[in-house]
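Need tokens for this chain, all 189 residues.
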Amino acid sequence: QTESRFSDIRKDVPVDLIYKVYKMAGRTDKEYYPQNLLSDVLGTGESSRFYQSLKMEKKLFTDVSAYVSGSIDTGMFIISGKLADGISYDAAEKGIAEEIEKIISANITDIELQRTKNMIETDIAGGYTSVLSKAQGLATAEMLEDAALINQELERFENVTQQDVRNAAEYLFQPQRCSTLYYGTQSKK
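Here are the structure tokens for all 189 residues:
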């Protein structure tokens, strides 16, 4: 993608939604790990930046998150949110942009980095509790790169630094890499 894309769809829906999707690294690229960690810092859980700032403080959204679609090929870094009643798309965009600018202009805190790594470690460890989940994990790792990847994944996340996350934000959040979708009620323009 070489330029930003935008679509505004109006239907008879109960809430207004915004999606901002950025092209990101593929699952086997070393850049995948800081980009994935960045999504958790911004939008996973009640301690995430989006939740604290955009939902709790500014009350722009009733739900807001960031997540990745990790696949073999180039993935997607997705920001999605349900706008609170009376909030315009411009206000929602501004709130997201402010949080993105904060993460580009200054490193995440030590606490954010460690909390996110702990969350990822719990997910990885908890994800292989059955024979089936271990077999699926090994098969996926073999398909991606090598079955040994299953034993290296946590280390790859642990090696991510604050600067790596900041670099990921600078790289990802360029306007020409973004596709934006407004999916909202017919009465809201």
